[in-house]
Fold each of these.
Amino acid sequence: MRAFACEVCDQLLFFENSSCLRCGTPQGFDSRALALVPLGARTRCAAASIAACNWLLDPDERQPFCASCRLTRTRPNDADSEGLEEFARAEGAKRRLLFELLDLGLPIDGADLHFDLLSSRSEPVITGHDDGLITLDLAESDDASREARRAQLDEPYRTLLGHFRHEIGHYYWPKLVEQAGEDELQRARALFGDERASYQQALDRHYAQGPPDGWSERYVSAYATMHPAEDWAESFSHYLHIHDTLQTAAAFGLVIGGPAVADDPTLSAPEIPEPDGAPFRAIIDSWLPLTYALNQVNRSMGRDDLYPFTLPAAVIEKLAYVHERVSAGATRRAGPAPQRAGQR
């Protein structure tokens, strides 16, 4: 995430701010400029109250919802006060996701990307992706419920934003890999496996047997071992983690240095293929020392590691491939999305 500043008094602003805490100037997020700007004559999104949305309508738009909120197809109804609180938290994570996608230049096509944000308290909800429709169980926005699921599944990391990043990875597979041609598809299959393998059989095997022995040398997470499609989505999600965190560190001038970094060869990435035009080494060589430092900061506060992952060479090679495909697929933002649909 970038660091923002008030154009009136130069006070630091955060992505979620709707006003400057120093001078009081109303602020809004301009999704075309990717900047927080004074409200002025601009119009706020109609979901400013219900979704805690601080995004602005583009000047030429004639619909009430911003570029983020109009991608949400279904939400809890107005009578579900608890569901609406969870919905607002989910929308905040979704806006962070969309900012990063726009910042990377990835296409966001409102004609084929939609979100159903639903509460499992009233009906069964399965978080997942289906041909451009991302469904999220709003229970994931509740810290206690999400932590219980994380512990039950023995996961080192589980966040609302992480769910969005994983599911959007499925959305970009056809756009960044399949549509790039047969040669590119074969390259991806050589890394992640054949995505045409039976998903149901893979699912049954994973929950019956768990991940294979030695999985941590080849996969970024245990869930990535289940099926090639999940390996891609987990790797894509992890790439977004890395990109966003490094951008935030750079925006706030966080530099990791000192003899522990300079003299320790374990803080450098192993040999990896360098994609033409999209070098990944500089990214990973910045990322690894930062994660070690952040983990030590967390431990100094008596908390678990902020970054509970290891990145062996096989995983870094997959991340390098994701970086290459993201770089190749970057384009200007797609046209306006359709109107927001109904509630549930």
Amino acid sequence: MILVTGGAGFIGSHIVELLLAEGQQVRVLDALLPSAHRSPPAINPEAEFIDGDVRDPMVVAAALRGVDGVCHQAAMVGLGADILDLPDYVGHNDLGTAVLLAELARAGFSGRVVLASSMVVYGEGRYRCATHGLVSPPPRLAQVLEHGEFDVVCPSCGAQLRPEAVPESAPLEPRNVYAATKLHQEHLAFCFSRETGVPVTALRYHNVYGPRMPRDTPYAGVASIFRSALERGEAPRVYEDGGQLRDFVHVRDIARANVMALLAPTPVRGALNVGSGQPRSILEMAQALAAAFPERLEPVVTGGFRLGDVRHVFASTELARELLGFAAEEEFAGGMAEFADAPLRA
């Protein structure tokens, strides 16, 4: 039996489907938070379902009975509305993870744990200066962004930096509340692993898109926000100059990576990037999505910004290929065309 926390959510529901297709018994624990489940949740009838909160030790203890694998997806996601979201993010993400791990230890769990982490733990991505080599730029300042200066520069000489794919060994420097909680989840999970010997794989998702994304909330991903605008007959509004590089990875690929980590003959310990391995700009993504709509509205580059966003971050995927045998299969243009018509959650 495999427990999937958050298994009625966007990514979790796809993992549940794939596990069931692999012949696994699946139990779902999901609190069905209104911020993510204002439409009917994606609860697979073939899975056992528990409506409960991962922060409740009694609920978690019951959910763990007979379980030999845990896929921990339950979390608040996205940049959120503002700093007032901080207690909710810490409660759901960090306290929830702590309760789950404590109950696993109390139950003498001897299976494996797969944790949903995120590329946001890196903060800004990996950059190289022609003169100073690899450098770590400081957070971008509001007064600089207000002048339309979006690219990061070398802190030593001021030269524009060249972005590179981020390996798992890169320094971890979260730049917003959500990112801080995801890194703390990793720290808690790896402490648990060292204490108990239970193998933990933390999958650092890059920008996930696909069917069942939440729409029209501050917690939705950028692909969903653009898709919702196009459905309203509005052009997507792109922050900064649209040149921000990300790694857009389809939710079916994310689900495959989770199932591979759960069922691999030998568990993989530690953190792995999960992405497509192909960086794309935010503007390029908006254009690909707009091209799938009959109106073909051209995205509008606003020059605006969100403090806490990073300029470039995209994955090095070699380690996941080497240790897990994972490589993304979904093609970008086809995935965006499908996403333009895919069902989203209110």
